[in-house]
Every structure is written in structure tokens, then in C-alpha cells.
Amino acid sequence: MNGGTEQTGEGHSPSQVVRNGLVACTLGYAFVAIAPVIVASSEVHGTAIAFWRSWIDFSLIGLACLFRKKMTKEMFIKCAPAGICFGASIGLYFWAAQMTSIINASLIVVLQPILFVVAAYFIFSEAFTKTDAAFTVVAITGAVFLVLVGTNTGTSDIKGDLLVVVSVTIGAAYFVFGRKTLPTVPVPEFMTGVFFWGGITLSTMISIGTVNPLTSIGSEWFRILSVAVVTLVGHLLLNYSQGKAPFHMMGVLNLLMPVLSTFLAFWFLDQGVTALQFTGMAVVILALALHSFLRSSVSDSQK
């Protein structure tokens, strides 16, 4: 088995490549974590926001691809599995964010790294050491503690919780398909295909659910545009990190999302956050920082 990463830049050591991937992945999750907080306070249906987000981002990144002139029919088709998973995952998650609290959704999201670890080992043949396991357990424990000790002032609905479970599973599949596709499809072309297929998926979901994607409130369109922009930046960074950061680490770093979402929910939505939750945040951040440092340092010794 191997570390599951590739040296993608000339003159860069394996540790530098991994470090670049981990930094990009961390920043990517930070941007993506902003979206559920924006969606939670919106009057527009979550699936409709996801629908507009995909088509807005498709227009933005697609315009860049027109100038690059690298997109082929084969690339476009290769992006379909990832795009369909992408659309279904965010559509369900944005919908769930309005049915349950950010705290409940965050608790479920902390289980996603387990799916990444399984995929990393069985699909991508990545080495998973005792040290990796220890830091993963510490980070997940900190994230669970962060959520469970909180004062949950948001609304809660079991249907919303179940939607988050389904969304998290499909979201992990999106990253798996992305990992397999990106070696042969450049990031801009990959994202163009993903947003197109995701948009088609979300259009179908809206049609079946008879959701009205329109709103006459100007501030809601600004909110939709904000979600599109921050998540576009986030997913570009995440897909850049594919092939650089170890796949299981991309799952573990996903634990930054409940930390940031909880903080933003406290700051902007007045959802309660206790001193014990801040302790949980500190445990997660310290565990992830130390794990990332050790993971990148080990890469050179394995060369």
C-alpha cells in the first residue's frame, strides 16, 4: 500500500505536495462551511438555493473553460457520476438545514470521516497507521463533544436528521468519484461538468418536489449569490487538493465544518454555544493541526 498522494509539481518534495493539499483542503472546507449558515436563515427553499448555486457556478466556471478550450465530450461524460452525487448531496443537505438545527446536522456530519477512511483503505489502497487512527478518533470525539454539550436552540426534525445522513453518504461518494476522475480531467473542466450534472439533478429534484425556485425578495437573491460564490471557491480548493492530500485526511479535515458552522451559528443565528463546546472546538482544531503536520512530515521519510 502507499500514501495515496502524487507528486504533481516539479521541484516540490512529497511533504510540500501533501502540505499544499492539506492547506487547500482546509481552506476549501472553511468556505463550504459558510453555506449552511446562510441557508438556515433564508426564506427560499434549501433545494432551490442549491439549484441556483449549481447553475450560477456552472455559468461562472464554464465561461472560464470556454476560453481554455480544453473540455471534451469524454471529459464531460466522466464528470457525470460525481456531478449527480454532488447535486443530490447539497440539495438534500440544504433542505435538511432548514428542517433541523445546525447543531444536529453537524453531529451527523462528524460521522463522514469514517466513510472516507473505509474508501481510502479499500478503494485507494492508502496506508492507515495507528497514529492516523488515534488522531482520527481524537478529532471525531472532540467534534461529537462539541455538538452534544451545546445548547441547541434551533428547531429539530427527525426527517431533517435522516436527510443529513443520506446527504453525508452521497457526499462521500462525490469525493470518491472526484478522486478517480481528476487525474484525467483538469479541475476547471471537472467543476464545469460537476455543476452541470449537479444542476440537472437539482432541477429534477425541484420538479418532483414542486419547489418554487423563484423569489421576489432582492436580499434573497444576494444570499443565493453569496452561497454560490463561497462554495465555488471552496470546491475549487477541495478539488485542487485531490491527489495531493491523503484521501482519509480529506475526510478527517471535514470535521472543521461543524466547528466553523457552530461558531457561525452562534455568531449570526443566536444558537447557543457553551464554554464546553469551545473546548470541543479546541480539541478538534489541535488534533487536526498536529495530524496534518505529522502526515506531511512523514511523506518525505517514505520517499
Q: What this model shows, in words?
A:
The chain has one domain (16-298). Helices cover 76% and strands 0% of the residues. It has 14 helices and no strands. The radius of gyration is 19 Å and the shape is globular. The two termini are 13 Å apart.
Helix content range of the residues, please? over 70%
Number of helices: 14
> Would you count the extended β strands for me?
0
Instruction: Work out the count of structural domains.
Output: 1
Secondary structure class reads mainly alpha
Please state the average pLDDT score.
81
SSE ordering: HHHHHHHHHHHHHH
Shape: globular
Distance between the termini: 13 Å
Q: List segments where confidence is low: pLDDT < 50 over at least 5 consecutive residues.
A: 1-8
Describe the sheet with the most strands: none
Strand content: under 5%
What does the radius of gyration come to?
19 Å
Task: Provide a short characterization of the protein structure.
By secondary structure, the protein is mostly helical. It has helices at 14-32, 34-40, 46-68, 73-78, 80-97, 102-109, 112-122, 130-148, 158-181, 187-209, 218-241, 247-253, 256-268, 275-301. It has one domain (16-298).
